Amino acid sequence: MKENELLVKVEGLSKKFCKDLKTSLWYGVKDLYSNIGGNKNNSLRDKEFWAVKDISFELRRGECLGLIGHNGAGKSTLLKILNGLIKPDTGKVTIKGRVGALIELGAGFNPILSGRENIFNNGAILGFTRREINDKIEEIIDFAELREFIDMPVQNYSSGMTVRLGFAIAVQIEPDVLLIDEVLAVGDMGFVLKCFKSIDRLLPNTALIFVSHNMPMISRLCNQILLLNKGESYYQGKDVAKGIASYYNKFSNNPESIIFTDNSIRFLNSRIINAKKEEEKFLVNWNTQLHLELELENLTLYHLPFITVSFYDKEQREVAIFNYDQKVRALDTGKFKLLFIHPNLQLSKGIYTVNLIIYSSSELKNPMLRINNILSLQIEHPTQSYPPFLLDCKIQMQEF
């Protein structure tokens, strides 16, 4: 087994589809006669679109390509071409060695056969002898944690059980090239962690193409990235952080959204008064003070309500909330301002949005107003970090 051996080479790959079934069948008949005459049609016709267009890359043993993009970008089509399930219209794919694939839930399984019989079927398709499969089958069953159900028809498996079996087969046969689509999102957290441990073990001897909408998973596994947009390469390279940033910047959509209001208090504006604003985002340096000002208008209340300010990351996970001690204060009708001061912001580099919820009391009951994305802020720091917090610390060394 050679290190840095070229295992996957994709050259000018393109695939088009038709939006209408009848038109697609008619084009298929026309193309059949055109191909016999040696005149292949590579241009778009009415109702056709490029699912994948002019994609090229190389992948060597020990490398992992993160394939990202929103739904409909062409990721699954590209994986199906690489796995030989779909023939491209133009371009060439060269793959060396055995290919393991987890592309669609249950793909490659015969539903009326048992899990055990499907293990033998999949192994045979990959070129393994019955003896070689027999040597691996106990490890596959143990990894999938399906010993009690291994002789039950696969059609009676849950989606999680199907993923367990498919992944167990894919990793235990130790393929040269492994293709993984978003199917891991179906599994429970314990099994997902087990899968990643197996991928870590396989990766030095495997070329991996990994499709996911989970950017922390992409950053953990991949050393190069391909961002697809409408079938075309929008970003391609070995700077994974830049590719992920391009993904967020290309597809970010954070409109102000009033979720609920009882018309007792009105939100007017919000800003970070000690930060510069660029392109609708406030630029904040890591580990500095944050002065967040809210402008509100009291319509019917007699006392200041309890106000929660929450921070959400790019995956829209709630990562932080302001904690403060609010005393009961009388409130006149009209406009007023509140200033929240946080001494040293240690959220890691990235873009965050702020949500506002106003309750009648600190017991967080009876919400009066909820608004998502009252502002966006970008934490600036030279270090790219995907955990939500970059904690400032000092290190000491002692001899003993």
What report would you give on this structure?
- The protein is α/β, with parallel strands linked by helices and 400 residues long.
- The protein has two domains: 6-11 and 53-251, P-loop containing nucleotide triphosphate hydrolases (Rossmann fold), CATH 3.40.50; 257-380, Distorted Sandwich (Coagulation Factor XIII, Chain A, domain 1), CATH 2.70.50.60.
- The protein contains eight helices and 19 strands.
- It has helices spanning 21-36, 75-82, 115-125, 130-144, 159-172, 189-202, 215-221, 240-251, and strands at 6-18, 48-60, 64-68, 90-95, 99-102, 177-180, 207-211, 224-229, 232-237, 257-261, 265-272, 276-278, 281-285, 290-298, 306-312, 318-321, 334-342, 350-359, 367-380.
- The longest helix is centred in the N-terminal third of the chain and has 16 residues, at 21-36.
- The model has no long low-confidence stretch (mean pLDDT 85).
- It holds the Pfam family ABC_tran.
- Belongs to the ABC transporter superfamily.
- GO terms for molecular function: ABC-type transporter activity; ATP binding; ATP hydrolysis activity.
- Residues 27-255 form the ABC transporter domain.
- This is ABC transporter ATP-binding protein.
Furnish the topology, listing elements before pairings.
Layout: E1 6-18, H1 21-36, E2 48-60, E3 64-68, H2 75-82, E4 90-95, E5 99-102, H3 115-125, H4 130-144, H5 159-172, E6 177-180, H6 189-202, E7 207-211, H7 215-221, E8 224-229, E9 232-237, H8 240-251, E10 257-261, E11 265-272, E12 276-278, E13 281-285, E14 290-298, E15 306-312, E16 318-321, E17 334-342, E18 350-359, E19 367-380
Parallel strand pairs: 3-7, 3-8, 5-6, 6-7, 13-19
Antiparallel strand pairs: 1-2, 1-4, 8-9, 10-19, 11-14, 12-13, 14-17, 15-16, 15-18, 18-19
Helix pairs in contact: 3-4, 4-5
